[in-house]
Structure formats: C-alpha cells, structure tokens
C-alpha cells in the first residue's frame, strides 16, 4: 500500500529493547519507511526468548516491517553515514544513554542544524538532566519506583504488571508526540526536538493513585478489585465457580440487580444505591 497515512516519510531509529521500537513499529504500520540502526552485536532484545519459531517474541513483534542497518558509531565513517541518512530523514528516534550521541558530535541539535525539518525524539529513563539521568532504567525498576507495584497484586505482596507496561506507555507517548510534531511541521515547515522520560510517562499514568495519596487515602492492593468502583472484581458463586463482574455506573447496577440478581430492591437500598455507597459497604 502507498496510501497509508505516513507513506513517504523516512524514520531513522537508533533503538533497542522495547520503548523506542514500540514507537517506531507504529510509525512503520502507518506506512513510514523505518530504518532500524543496530550496533554490531545487535539489539539485545533479539535474545529475550525463542518463543517465535526460534526467534525473540519481543523482537518479532516490535520490528516487523522495518529495514535493518548495522552501524558502529565509534567509527567516523559510520557516524558520517548516519549524518547523511538523517539529512534526508523526517524523524530520528533514539533511546541510547543520555548524551551518547552528543558526545560523538551527532546529537539531535547537530543533526537538526544540517536538516532543520528533522524531528528528533530522544527516549530516556529518568530525563536528560538531574541526579538520576545516568541511571539505567528498566521496566520493572520504574514500575516499582513510580509506585505502580504498590497498587498492583493482592494484599499480601506487590506485583509487576504482566507486560512491559512502562516501555509500552513510553513508546505510545513518543509516537503521539511525533505525530503532533509532524502536524506542526506541516504548518510551519520546521522540525523540533522531543524528550520523553519513562518515569515521567508512568508518573502521569499514576495521577489518580497520587491524588488519593495526597488526600490521605493511598489505594490498597486489591487484586482484580477496584478501590473506587463496586461491584468490580472476582466473586465466588454458590457452586464454587467464580465470576468476574465490572459494573461502571449506577444505571448498570440497577440493570444488574434487576435482570441478573433478580433483586431490583438492591438498586434502591441506601447501602448500595450509588457507587460511593457500594464502595463503602
């Protein structure tokens, strides 16, 4: 197909692991030509598992539809090649350690000086500056440090979310920011520099628990239940089976009480009439 939304765009991505590859996989799905730049030893996500017919499930999922280019950016000739490719590119994405490209003279600012229409997007763990800028950042670490693990799992112990939620959220945020930058460039013709931090992204996603904590009532770990909505979670039946119920509002509750429980009176009972009543009781 040549009529996909991003057909004709060239994206260069110096990427590894999950966050940046997730972002650029979405750009590739929309028709962009994505050149994935790997170091000579390759993206370490290639070795995560062998679940996809002997290949890494992560790598197959996140890198389909891309072109691959091996560059050793310690070599002047390879740095020159990257510069020349970026001279014709629309977007550069990278998730190397903060400052790595700048130290080699090929940072976003230098590349945009050569190509003012270039949109650059740098993904880091904890931001480009500050006391944590140089720390390695992995999905589990930021799940824990952001407080996400403290509200995930059952009462007995915290848990990680079962997928790489921080990486995926960060990639999605980078993808959205790049699309916004492309729209802006269409108006004024200039590229821009985007900085995305994994910690910042998931901290934003944690806004509701943070607001509860600020109000003096930190959410508790409740497994599949919800601290603010009821009934919501797994409930035992008389025959020993379990059922998952997710009632989002009072209208649904009234219908559930009438049609499923055959107890329409519960929707009028002062203990259960509103969601706040049901959560309290």
Give a verbal description of the structure.
Helix 1 packs across helix 7. The radius of gyration is 24 Å and the shape is elongated. A six-stranded parallel sheet has the order 3-2-1-4-5-6, with helices on both faces. The protein has a two-stranded antiparallel ribbon with strand order 7-8. The protein folds into two domains: 198 residues, Crotonobetainyl-coa:carnitine coa-transferase, domain 1 (Rossmann fold); 49 residues, no CATH class. Helices cover 37% and strands 14% of the residues. With 281 residues, the chain is of the alpha/beta class.
Mean pLDDT: 93
Please report the first level of CATH classification, the CATH class of the largest domain.
Alpha Beta
Output the CATH homologous superfamily of the largest domain: Crotonobetainyl-coa:carnitine coa-transferase, domain 1
Strand content: 5-15%
Distance between the termini: 56 Å
> What number of domains?
2
> Strand order within the widest sheet?
3-2-1-4-5-6
Q: Helix proportion of residues, in percent?
A: 25-40%
At the third CATH level, what is the topology name of the largest domain?
Rossmann fold
Order of helices and strands: EHEHEHEHHEHHEHHEEHH
CATH level-two architecture of the largest domain: 3-Layer(aba) Sandwich
Which consecutive residue ranges, at least 5 long each, have pLDDT under 50?
A: none
Structural class: alpha/beta
């Amino acid at each position: 197909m040549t009529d996909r939304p991003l057909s004709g765009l060239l994206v260069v991505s110096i990427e590894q692991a999950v966050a940046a590859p997730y972002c650029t996989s979405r750009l590739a799905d929309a028709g962009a030509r994505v050149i994935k730049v790997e170091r000579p030893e390759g993206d370490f996500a290639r070795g995560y598992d062998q679940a996809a017919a002997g290949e890494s499930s992560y790598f197959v999922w996140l890198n389909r539809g891309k072109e691959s280019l091996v560059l050793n950016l310690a070599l002047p000739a390879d740095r020159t090649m990257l510069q020349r490719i970026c001279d014709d590119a629309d977007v550069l994405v990278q998730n190397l350690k903060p400052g790595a490209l700048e130290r080699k003279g090929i940072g976003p600012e230098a590349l945009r000086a050569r190509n003012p229409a270039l949109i650059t997007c740098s993904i880091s763990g904890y931001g480009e500056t500050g006391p944590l800028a140089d720390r390695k950042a992995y999905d589990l670490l930021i799940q824990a440090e952001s407080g996400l693990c403290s509200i995930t799992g059952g009462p007995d112990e915290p848990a990680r979310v079962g997928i790489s939620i921080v990486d995926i959220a960060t990639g999605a945020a980078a993808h959205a920011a790049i699309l916004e930058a492309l729209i802006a460039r269409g108006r004024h013709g200039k590229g821009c520099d985007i900085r995305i931090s994994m910690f910042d992204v998931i901290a934003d996603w944690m806004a509701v628990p943070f607001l509860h904590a600020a109000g003096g009532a930190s959410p508790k770990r409740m497994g599949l239940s919800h601290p603010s909505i009821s009934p919501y979670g797994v409930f035992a039946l008389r025959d020993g089976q379990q059922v998952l119920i997710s009632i989002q509002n009072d209208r649904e509750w009234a219908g559930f009480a009438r049609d499923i429980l055959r107890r329409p009176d519960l929707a009028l009972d002062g203990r259960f009439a509103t969601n706040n009543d049901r959560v309290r009781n």
